[in-house]
Design brief:
The chain has 373 residues and is an alpha+beta fold. It has helices at 6-17, 35-38, 50-64, 88-103, 113-118, 141-154, 199-206, 278-291, 337-352, and strands at residues 23-26, 76-77, 81-85, 109-111, 129-133, 138-139, 158-161, 165-171, 174-180, 186-187, 191-193, 212-222, 242-245, 250-255, 258-262, 267-268, 301-311, 317-320, 327-331. It holds the Pfam family DAO.
Amino acid sequence: MVGAGIGGLATGWELARRGHDVTILERSSSAFTGSSGSNAGILRSVVESEVLCELAARGARALIEPDPELAERSLVDPVGVLLIANEDAGAETLERMGAAARAAGTLYEIVDPTTALRALPHVGTPAKFALWSDREGTIDLDRLRDGLLAAIARRSGRLVFAANVASIETQDGAVRGVHLDRGPMIAADAVVLATGGWADGFARAAGSPLHFEARRRHAAIARPEGAGPDGVGAVVDPSWPVVWNHGDNFYSRPARGGLLVCNCDSTAVDPDGYDLDAAALESLGRAMQRHLRPPFDRAPLDPWCGVRTFAADGEFALGPDPLVAGLYWTAGLGGHGITCGLAAAAVVADAIEGRAETAFASLSPMRFSPTRS
């Protein structure tokens, strides 16, 4: 397993508890240092397609009612998730997405948007349609990470940090193992790439036909005017729900004495060479002015950025590589890795064991086979 973000740790644990001999290699000095550690930690299972709704619903259940080996209690603070749309077209799309989510077993209900927003004094935009879940909310990323690390260790899985994978060894079109930048080859019957923003480089190096793009996304804190970094003087209620404007892709949730805000900007970047972008932060500031009421600051505070990774068609890549036997992918998870990670791990493990579930066939990397018509 290459990578110790949510994809690598979840898949490593899933394989280890099925009896496989698992080694996880991570080039950083700790887990969750990439996108898994820089995201907003939101559980939102209403997503864009029916197949992802099914995967997200399974992932949500695994977080809300986790396996006792992973956590003793829920990994989710159910502050609620309110999804709103303020245009007719957006309302129709959101209603369709909600229906797909309910069909997958997710408990979202249609609510009156005016009534729902009346209790949220920070939301500055009206809405024509709203979906509400009182079971979803925010994910405790630290407990999720620590639970996965402990569960892998209990299953005798090995984690090697500061392990930079230099190349993947293949022979006659099949994986033989991986080479680190120093030391002998580590032999393996299967190699799973959960390398986040670096997936495209690994694909090229392995001779895979898959292509991925890392895209930068910014987030920041909107803090009431006059409130300090510790939140003193803040009017933010920590029990406020996640509010996601579907049409504008702007969301907020209580955090750090204010509101964590993001307008889901998406710009292709080199995963080894990106930083905060002034123009993107200006755009986020304008989005805050549209979506937040006073007394919140009109400039994003304490901003940060991370990357989300997408396959060429925007869908997940879960399963076997179409050209390199023994090479598997858990990649291209976009902005849904934390919600879907535990469920995606089972899909990849099933593929390795030769019993892939047909419900997720459209997410298989085999769709990128050069010989597929």
